[in-house]
Specification:
This protein has 707 residues and is of the alpha+beta class. It is 18% helix and 26% strand. Among the domains are: 59 residues, no CATH class; 72 residues, no CATH class; 70 residues, Golgi alpha-mannosidase II (Immunoglobulin-like); 89 residues, Immunoglobulin-like. It has an eight-stranded parallel beta barrel, surrounded by four helices. A six-stranded antiparallel sheet has the order 21-22-23-28-25-26, covered by helices on one side.
Length: 707
């Protein structure tokens, strides 16, 4: 009865106000209450201690989750309880026996921890339903890591929506995609399938990456060309849009050819770099202007110059200059970049990067580079691929009011002026032009070096066009010896007319001196360098005290040998990677003789002879159709005999000795030496005599005659 009375008084007091009809209670009276809770099965409150029939802090119980005190069994009941989280009121309940007739019930909401998810029971039993490990989506990059800040990524369970986050460590000590450590073969204007047939040769020559020409649809493509595309290489740099070329849109190949090349290159441990043209499209004097530029706005500044930021980034280079701040253009370029990633491309060279604004360019700035590079990187990582490698073409300077550092915080760049100085040094016999410092003022781990580029050779009046390949190769040896910089070898076409799609298979890119330079570069990655000149020669010593090597280059042509006093190389026996001759350093002195203008020494103990297993003393045919069997009739040194060509390495080949003559015969597919019959030959070449270590011919150059 007391509790009923309390509630009645509470109601009365709430209507009348405390003491309003009680003469014994002064209006100034302050009620006091117990610190202990009074409870019933529904509520809790504090009783008064001042003698008045009032209460304080009346409220409903706030219960915790049920706690199992005793689990039920099939035949015995269990016990559970819960407490009010405010007054600790205890409520107990019997749990029915869990006999076969009992069916557990479960919450429709998921419970989870960092590993699993499940449904909790709602019937009071300590059981779970649908307990499974999380099924995660691919990682999503929320913030890309930089050299100074960690990044952040997350992934989500597709069942219970649990989100897992992970920090992406700073990239400060990383070599992005490792291409920065590599030598790069610039397979300039080679058809993609021609590159593919030479992958083993390229790998054997010591290259780590191959750079192709642009693979966008271009002016006067292979189908219905208005002009002679074959003899106008620059048309590849006048694209018709932002996509990867498909059938008959690019003379070098198609998107499927590129995917196939990347797949085969990966098997050889080689990476593919593609040239990107996004500063401009085709010119306005050839009938293409209306169709390719109507989609994007143009800059109207005029011709570019280096006198102001605006002139550099909004001026044209004799082609209409695209407004690269335009969001539609940026979206289309990024879409193309994603196509390349899907093909398997690992790196990108950006043509005319100097003329595309950075976020540091004040009122002429834009987010082009962050949008394209971050977007491409995020997409690549989401596909489980490496972070792509990026480098930009910036010739000579960045222009007034601009800095190379605005680019190198995002990508590597070419140091073209330094390359020009090296080329001038070897062309003019002037060692003073070579400096161990770099023109850009940037760290070498953000630089790409060369001694010749397609611009300096292919352009009429180009800087190195009249230089001999021997001179250029000496310049490359100098560049390949340098620490931390990537180095690019431009594979000259086999004619001064610089026609597209022409390859000199016996050219400089895989000559002994270039193989040796690449080997030295790869052997001493990350090792300190000591660069100096000595009596008209360039010297770069690399490595530590016990395993140091050195590159010597006779910049002055008159040098055939020279005695050097070395700085860091320990005394001992050394092998020249070019000539394979042995040299001895004694009391820090060595008498160096130059082969092709250079000598590259490594400790003899570190030298492993490179055995060329690609048909030693052999004839190799490239690009031969697989619809025939190829057999040669060979005579001269040994008794005349049939020899079967083998499908291996970079083409098909047979072993020959110097002085032997041969006739190549095409037989029906499946013919063997045992079944071959001269009288049923389908076609044969004219007779020829073999001379040399290895002769490589292209199928298309064979002069076939019918039987």
């Amino acid at each position: 009865m007391k509790k009923i009375k309390v509630f009645l008084f509470t109601i009365i007091l709430s209507l009348s106000g405390c003491g309003s009809n009680n003469s014994e209670t002064p209006s100034s009276h302050v009620h006091t209450f117990s610190n202990e809770w009074t409870t019933n099965n529904l509520q809790h409150w504090h009783e008064s201690t001042c003698g008045h029939d009032v209460i304080s802090e009346l409220g409903d119980h706030v219960f915790s989750n049920w706690i199992i005190d005793k689990e039920p069994t099939a035949t015995e009941t269990g016990v559970k309880h819960r407490n009010c989280t405010i007054c600790q009121y205890y409520e107990g309940e019997v749990i029915p026996a869990s006999g076969e007739e009992h069916a557990h019930t479960f919450s429709t909401e998921w419970s989870y921890d960092e590993n699993m998810h499940w449904h909790d029971s709602t019937c009071g039993h300590n059981v779970k339903s649908n307990e499974e490990y999380h099924t995660f989506s691919n990682w999503i990059i929320d913030k890309e890591a930089s050299k100074t800040e960690d990044g952040l990524k997350h992934r989500q369970c597709s069942v219970c929506s649990y989100i897992e986050e992970e920090i992406i460590p700073k990239t400060e000590d990383e070599k992005e995609n490792s291409i920065q450590d590599m030598t790069i073969l610039h397979a300039w204007n080679w058809k993609l399938n021609d590159i593919k047939t030479r992958l083993k040769q390229i790998k054997k020559a010591g290259y780590g990456a191959i750079q192709t020409s642009p693979m966008q649809p271009h002016v006067d493509g292979a189908n219905g060309a208005k002009y002679d595309t074959q003899n106008n290489w620059w048309k590849l740099y006048q694209p018709l849009g932002f996509k990867v070329a498909t059938e008959n849109e690019n003379i070098l190949g198609t998107k499927s050819d590129l995917s196939s090349l990347c797949e085969e290159a990966e098997k050889e441990g080689l990476k593919i770099i593609v040239d990107i043209v996004s500063n401009h499209l085709a010119g306005d004097g050839n009938g293409y202007n209306s169709q390719v530029y109507k989609r994007y706005p143009l800059h109207t500044y005029g011709k570019t110059n280096d006198n102001s930021i605006q002139a550099v980034v909004q001026g044209h280079i004799d082609l209409p200059d695209l407004d690269t701040s335009n969001s539609e253009l940026q979206t289309d370029v990024l879409s193309m970049m994603k196509e390349y990633i899907d093909c398997g491309v690992s790196g990108f060279r950006f043509d005319a990067a100097k003329h595309i604004e950075t976020p540091d360019d004040g009122e002429w700035a834009s987010n082009y580079w962050p949008f394209i590079l971050d977007g491409t990187t995020t997409y690549a990582i989401s596909k489980g691929k490496e972070k792509p490698y990026y480098y930009g073409e910036i010739l000579t300077t960045c222009g007034e009011g601009r800095s190379f550092s605005s680019y190198t915080k995002m990508m590597s760049v070419v140091d073209s002026k330094q390359g020009e100085n090296v080329a001038d040094a070897v062309m003019n016999n002037d060692i003073s032009l070579i400096s161990k410092r770099y023109n850009t003022g940037q760290s070498p781990d953000k630089l790409v070096l060369w001694s010749e580029s397609h611009d300096t050779y292919a352009n009429i009046g180009g800087h190195t066009r009249e230089a001999s390949i021997d001179k250029i190769n000496k310049g490359y040896v100098i560049q390949a010896s340098r620490k931390d910089a990537a180095v690019l070898y431009y594979a000259r076409p086999n004619n001064m007319g610089v026609s597209m799609c022409t390859i000199d298979d016996l050219g400089g890119y895989r000559s002994n001196i270039i193989k040796a330079a690449n080997s030295f570069h790869n052997k001493y990655l990350g090792k300190d360098e000591t660069v100096y000149s000595y009596s008209g020669a360039f010297v770069n010593e690399r490595g530590d005290d016990s395993h140091a090597g050195a590159t010597f280059v006779a910049v002055n042509d008159g040098l055939s040998s020279l005695e050097f006093t070395v700085k860091n190389l320990p005394d001992g026996k050394y092998i020249d990677l070019i000539s394979k001759n042995e040299f001895i350093i004694s009391n820090k002195k060595v008498n160096v003789s130059f082969t092709d203008g250079a000598c590259i020494l490594i400790p003899k103990d570190d030298y492993n002879e490179d055995v060329d297993d690609d048909y030693i003393s052999s004839l190799v045919i490239l690009n031969a159709p697989t619809t025939y069997t190829y057999i040669a009739w060979v005579w001269g040194v040994n008794n005349p005999n049939w020899r079967m060509f083998q499908n291996d390495k970079d083409g098909i080949g047979i072993s020959l000795n110097n002085g032997e003559s041969y006739t190549i015969v095409e037989f029906p597919l499946g013919t063997t030496i045992e079944t071959a019959n001269w009288n049923i030959k389908e076609r044969q070449t004219v007779d020829a005599s073999f001379s040399g270590v290895q002769l490589i011919i292209n199928y298309s150059s064979l002069n076939w005659k019918t039987s």
